[in-house]
From TrEMBL:
<dbReference type="GO" id="GO:0005524">
    <property type="term" value="F:ATP binding"/>
</dbReference>
<comment type="pathway">
    <text>Glycolipid biosynthesis; lipid IV(A) biosynthesis; lipid IV(A) from (3R)-3-hydroxytetradecanoyl-[acyl-carrier-protein] and UDP-N-acetyl-alpha-D-glucosamine: step 6/6.</text>
</comment>
<keyword id="KW-0547">Nucleotide-binding</keyword>
<keyword id="KW-0067">ATP-binding</keyword>
<keyword id="KW-0808">Transferase</keyword>
<keyword id="KW-0418">Kinase</keyword>
<dbReference type="GO" id="GO:0009244">
    <property type="term" value="P:lipopolysaccharide core region biosynthetic process"/>
</dbReference>
<keyword id="KW-0443">Lipid metabolism</keyword>
<dbReference type="GO" id="GO:0009029">
    <property type="term" value="F:lipid-A 4'-kinase activity"/>
</dbReference>
<protein>
    <recommendedName>
        <fullName>Tetraacyldisaccharide 4'-kinase</fullName>
        <ecNumber>2.7.1.130</ecNumber>
    </recommendedName>
</protein>
<dbReference type="InterPro" id="IPR003758">
    <property type="entry name" value="LpxK"/>
</dbReference>
<dbReference type="GO" id="GO:0009245">
    <property type="term" value="P:lipid A biosynthetic process"/>
</dbReference>
<dbReference type="InterPro" id="IPR027417">
    <property type="entry name" value="P-loop_NTPase"/>
</dbReference>
<feature type="binding site">
    <location>
        <begin position="63"/>
        <end position="70"/>
    </location>
    <ligand>
        <name>ATP</name>
    </ligand>
</feature>
<keyword id="KW-0441">Lipid A biosynthesis</keyword>
<comment type="function">
    <text>Transfers the gamma-phosphate of ATP to the 4'-position of a tetraacyldisaccharide 1-phosphate intermediate (termed DS-1-P) to form tetraacyldisaccharide 1,4'-bis-phosphate (lipid IVA).</text>
</comment>
<dbReference type="Pfam" id="PF02606">
    <property type="entry name" value="LpxK"/>
</dbReference>
């Protein structure tokens, strides 16, 4: 079941109770975090099980949850196409029921997860919890580079470039390992496996990460999230925002910064599967407030579920009456990103020849 990201992972601001939680919970959970961290570090240290004959570009992050991996993967695929490559995506398909390797074609989110549906609009997309099996399937279909959405901490498939994506405002949160904080493994165990950093947005925590990568002699790049549409439609009516992502508050801030008159907002856990009751509540609120319903592209894709496929279901109606707000990652220095990709491809080619 999807869980909401604990607010105390990312700071000590707010009410006295929230400040107290941010101090007490990490310490209380530290024994579990220590065990989790040791296990994660040990896994990271393992040698890869398989090296593909194709270059593998992994878009990952140091922390649990979002951060912009999927839109970054889409943006990189666009650059790869621009330099004459034929990319294919490899993703785990979180939240989907698929057990074997699946090439996304006519599936819905209940089968392959929401990210896979967005990726499949751009390039051939394969869903596989077994990254090695997924890579082998891609090798057979004519692509010449694999773009892996997530999987940085998975040692199974050798990576030619591990690009870490981080949100500038949240950074590494409190810097502690799950469940005391958002880190998927101790930072000292993750840094040696990271090749480059992409910080999205502006913020002191992002600046600190850039300095850390630069001190290690690794490329540190910047990008922004921008609307992939004319956002003026957000100003037409009052807006009710809803999102089931790692940090819904970030989406709501994006809506407001693009002119939305947000009369209410509803956050749910990452990859949340909306129930009939929740859908009906949102629809009724929109009716009573004469407001439009706006959500993320991922949530909108997920509103088609196998047990809510009747035309008169509230979930189906919510999909019809809500509107996704599309976003895109834009690189501050696109030439630097192209140089990074081209260098990676050259090194991968040399390895395959050798």
């Amino acid at each position: 079941m999807p869980l909401e990201t604990p607010s105390w992972w990312y700071g000590k601001r707010g009410s006295f109770a929230k400040v107290a939680l941010a101090k007490v919970m990490p310490a209380l959970l530290s024994p579990v975090a220590s065990l989790y961290g040791r296990s994660a570090a040990s896994r990271l240290a393992q040698d890869p099980e398989y090296r593909s004959g194709l270059p593998v570009i992994c878009i990952g992050n140091f922390t649990s949850g979002g951060g912009g991996k999927t839109p970054t993967a889409i943006a990189l695929a666009g650059l790869l196409k621009a330099i004459g490559k034929t990319p294919a995506f490899l993703t785990r398909g979180y939240g989907g029921s698929a057990k074997d390797v699946v090439q996304v074609a006519g599936h819905d989110a209940s089968e392959v997860g929401d990210e896979a549906l967005l990726l499949a609009e751009i390039a051939p997309t394969f869903v596989s919890a077994d990254r090695v099996a997924g890579a082998k399937a891609i090798e057979q279909m004519g692509a010449d580079v694999i773009v892996m959405d997530d999987g940085f901490q998975n040692p199974g498939l050798a990576k030619d470039l591990s690009l870490i994506v981080a949100d500038a405002a949240s950074g590494l949160g409190n810097g502690k390992v799950i469940p005391s904080g958002p880190l998927r493994a101790p930072l000292a165990a993750q840094m040696p496996h990271a090749d480059a950093l992409l910080v999205i947005g502006e913020g002191k925590k992002g600046d600190a990460l850039i300095k850390r990568f630069e001190a290690a002699g690794k490329p540190a790049l910047r990008a922004k999230i921008k609307p992939n549409c004319d956002p003026r439609w957000l100003t037409v009516l009052p807006t009710i925002g809803f999102a089931g992502i790692a940090r819904p508050s970030k989406f709501f801030s994006t809506l407001k910064s693009n002119g939305a008159r947000l009369v209410s907002s509803h956050g749910f856990g990452d990859h949340h599967r909306f129930t009939e009751k929740e859908a009906r509540r949102l629809l009724d609120e929109a009716e009573s407030k004469k407001a439009m319903l706006v959500t993320t592209e991922k949530d909108w894709a997920r509103l088609t579920e196998d047990d809510d496929d009747e035309e008169d279901s509230a979930v189906a109606e919510l999909k019809k009456r809500s509107r996704p707000f599309p976003i895109v990652v834009t690189f501050d220095d696109q030439d630097a990103v192209k140089t990074l990709l081209e260098g990676t491809l050259e090194k991968a080619s040399a390895k395959s020849i050798g």
